[in-house]
């Protein structure tokens, strides 16, 4: 007989600091992989399974705004609960919230494993048909050495008896809830829920894991995750270019790449006349076949008069995300005799990166003069050129 209900706890209460070693301060569960945040991917993987009744995220108390920004809505998705100081405490908080619903079974999943598959979920649930608990595992293929001091090898382990544990780990709800409540009174920190189940005397079965069910822990794991997506979905790279020119008018500053730079004039245009962001927006739109900036923001529309060009750039970035794509890199060249650009380049790269939600390492801004030739040489205006490299799912 099938279970009455199956609940899922998504453990997302950590700060994700190890994954931020590349300079990105965003907690790993809220960083994007191919345009979609890790936590959103993890939750979606369970909501896509029709046997799941409830999905409960357990988040850090300081991350409420980040979670709300995901914009997730589903009748089976419960309001998030705040976690505790440890993973074990966070899981217990989730179990307490689920207790009044009396689910038959519960799956406990790390938020940082965004590639859970329907087949993996089914294997865990099947394991629960015969045992108190079930967890996906992979055989250890490396030779494992034990050391007592971290310097000298003491012994070699028998890898035939070693397996790497993954999540989701599944249990009969009442049994694991009771085990967690008792474990909370023990002066010992358990590494995962299966260890708590083992300590409580429950029989936990191993089921076949999934090589792609990786845990995002370190910065390089994001690169690996994107490679997995590309292999699964079949991505292709598209290139777009943009060009724009604006004349000078009376004023005291120019906007370039989202940065206001003092000058003896301003750039003339319907919006803030940020010639660099206009070219860059066109480059991104071109890469995904979405026309140009005038198609989306016609100059005849007065609502865009004086508008910040970051609005246009952000819109182009959102269109990339809607196609489940990602921006690989952006390159902007500004051609002007004045003002001098070099000292503003770091701020420009940061402004573009923040607007699009990407790493500043993916953005390049360069400046050159026109060697006093033509209208640029006469300081009558500024030209900007841009290129964008975008990966999107293959459609043919």
TrEMBL record:
Report which reactions are catalysed by this protein: 2-C-methyl-D-erythritol 4-phosphate + CTP + H(+) = 4-CDP-2-C-methyl-D-erythritol + diphosphate; 4-CDP-2-C-methyl-D-erythritol 2-phosphate = 2-C-methyl-D-erythritol 2,4-cyclic diphosphate + CMP
Record carries keyword Lyase: yes
Organism domain of life = Bacteria
The Gene Ontology biological process terms listed for this entry are: isopentenyl diphosphate biosynthetic process, methylerythritol 4-phosphate pathway; terpenoid biosynthetic process
In this chain, the stretch annotated as 2-C-methyl-D-erythritol 4-phosphate cytidylyltransferase covers 1-237
Q: Identify the pathway.
A: Isoprenoid biosynthesis; isopentenyl diphosphate biosynthesis via DXP pathway; isopentenyl diphosphate from 1-deoxy-D-xylulose 5-phosphate: step 2/6; Isoprenoid biosynthesis; isopentenyl diphosphate biosynthesis via DXP pathway; isopentenyl diphosphate from 1-deoxy-D-xylulose 5-phosphate: step 4/6
Record-listed 4-CDP-2-C-methyl-D-erythritol 2-phosphate binding positions? 244-246, 270-271, 292-294, 368-371, 375, 378
Identify the residues that bind a divalent metal cation.
Answer: 244, 246, 278
List, alphabetically, the InterPro entries matched. Answer: IspD (IPR001228), IspD/F (IPR026596), IspD/TarI (IPR034683), MECDP_synthase (IPR003526), MECDP_synthase_CS (IPR020555), MECDP_synthase_sf (IPR036571), Nucleotide-diphossugar_trans (IPR029044)
**Gene3D superfamilies this protein is in?**
2-C-methyl-D-erythritol 2,4-cyclodiphosphate synthase, Spore Coat Polysaccharide Biosynthesis Protein SpsA, Chain A
Location of site Transition state stabilizer? 18, 28, 270, 369
Per its UniProt record, the required cofactor names are:
a divalent metal cation
Q: What does the record give under GO molecular function?
A: 2-C-methyl-D-erythritol 2,4-cyclodiphosphate synthase activity; 2-C-methyl-D-erythritol 4-phosphate cytidylyltransferase activity; metal ion binding
Q: Which UniProt keywords apply?
A: Isoprene biosynthesis, Lyase, Metal-binding, Multifunctional enzyme, Nucleotidyltransferase, Transferase
Q: Where is this region: 2-C-methyl-D-erythritol 2,4-cyclodiphosphate synthase?
A: 238-396
Q: Site feature Positions MEP for the nucleophilic attack: at which residues? A: 159, 215
Domain (2-C-methyl-D-erythritol 2,4-cyclodiphosphate synthase) spans 238-390
Q: Which parts form a coiled-coil structure per UniProt? A: none
Task: Supply the EC number(s).
Answer: 2.7.7.60, 4.6.1.12
Q: Which family does it belong to?
A: In the N-terminal section; belongs to the IspD/TarI cytidylyltransferase family. IspD subfamily.
Question: Which NCBIfam families does this one have?
Answer: ispD (TIGR00453), ispF (TIGR00151), PRK09382.1 (NF006899)
Q: What does this protein do?
A: Bifunctional enzyme that catalyzes the formation of 4-diphosphocytidyl-2-C-methyl-D-erythritol from CTP and 2-C-methyl-D-erythritol 4-phosphate (MEP) (IspD), and catalyzes the conversion of 4-diphosphocytidyl-2-C-methyl-D-erythritol 2-phosphate (CDP-ME2P) to 2-C-methyl-D-erythritol 2,4-cyclodiphosphate (ME-CPP) with a corresponding release of cytidine 5-monophosphate (CMP) (IspF).
Name recorded for this polypeptide: Bifunctional enzyme IspD/IspF
Source organism (scientific name): Devosia sediminis
Lineage at the top is:
Bacteria, Pseudomonadati, Pseudomonadota, Alphaproteobacteria, Hyphomicrobiales
């Amino acid at each position: 007989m099938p279970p009455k209900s199956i609940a899922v706890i998504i453990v997302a209460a950590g700060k994700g600091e190890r994954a931020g070693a590349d300079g990105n301060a965003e907690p790993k569960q809220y960083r994007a992989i191919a345009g979609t945040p890790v936590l959103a991917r993890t939750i979606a993987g369970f909501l896509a399974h029709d046997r799941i009744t409830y999905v409960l995220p357990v988040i850090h108390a300081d991350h409420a705004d980040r979670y709300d920004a995901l914009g997730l809505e589903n009748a089976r998705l419960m309001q998030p609960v705040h976690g505790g100081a440890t993973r074990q405490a966070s899981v217990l908080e989730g179990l307490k919230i689920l207790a009044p619903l009396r689910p038959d079974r519960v799956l406990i999943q790390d938020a940082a494993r965004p590639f859970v598959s329907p087949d993996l979920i089914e294997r865990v649930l099947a394991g629960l048909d015969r045992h108190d608990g079930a967890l996906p595992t992979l055989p250890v293929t490396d030779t494992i050495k034990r050391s007592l001091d971290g310097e000298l090898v003491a012994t070699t382990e028998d890898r035939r008896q070693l397996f790497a544990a993954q999540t989701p780990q599944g249990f009969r709800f009442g049994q694991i809830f009771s085990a967690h409540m008792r474990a909370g009174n023990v002066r010992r920190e358990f590494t995962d829920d299966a260890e708590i189940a083992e300590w409580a005397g429950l029989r936990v079965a191993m089921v076949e894991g999934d090589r792609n069910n990786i845990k995002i822990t370190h910065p390089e794991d994001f690169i690996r995750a994107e490679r997995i997506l590309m292999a699964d979905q079949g991505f292709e790279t598209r290139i777009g270019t943009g060009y724009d020119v604006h004349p000078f008018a009376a004023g005291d500053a120019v906007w370039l790449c989202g940065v206001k730079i003092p000058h003896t004039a301003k750039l003339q245009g319907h919006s803030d006349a940020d010639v660099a962001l206009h070219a860059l927006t066109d480059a991104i739109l071109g890469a995904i076949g979405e026309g140009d900036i005038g198609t989306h923001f016609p100059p005849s529309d007065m609502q865009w008069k004086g508008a910040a060009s970051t609005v246009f750039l952000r819109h182009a970035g959102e269109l990339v995300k809607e196609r489940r794509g990602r921006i690989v890199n952006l390159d902007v060249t500004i051609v002007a005799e004045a003002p001098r650009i070099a000292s503003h380049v770091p701020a420009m790269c940061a402004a573009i990166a923040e607007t699009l939600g990407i790493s500043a390492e993916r953005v390049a801004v360069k400046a050159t003069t026109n060697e006093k030739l033509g209208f640029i040489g006469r300081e009558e205006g500024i030209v900007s050129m841009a290129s964008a490299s975008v990966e999107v799912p293959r459609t043919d």
